[in-house]
Amino acid sequence: MTQIIAGHKTEFAIDPVILNLLPEQGSIELQHDTAGKVHHLHTHPVDEILVIIRGRLNFMWDGGERIVGAGDTILLPAGTPHQSEALEGGAVYAIATRPPANPANN
Q1: Which of 32, 33, 71, 99 is placed for a possible disulfide with 37 were both Cys, Cβ 3.0 to 4.6 Å?
Q2: What share of the chain is helix, strand, coil (3-state, %, to 5)?
Q3: Which residues of the chain have pLDDT under 50?
Q4: Does residue 18 fall inside a structural domain?
């Protein structure tokens, strides 16, 4: 059943780095991965920008691997094979997607 719960909060604090990811039309996803969660090797037809908010990920992409943590940003061009695993304590991160910056390369 649909419900609308009246509220009084009119302002929300959003880090400007996260807010700047918001596309002209679209959304930003907040992802919460518990420790050990693996997103197996995959690709996307859109560019992805990930901003790590809390915790750490072991991030692997075609040609590299790095442990990323709070404050790090990952710029992932469309079509790039990638995989991640949340490390001890898990991870929270924002994901924005956009049409490829250079569609001719995909």
Answers
A1: 33
A2: 5, 50, 45
A3: 106
A4: no
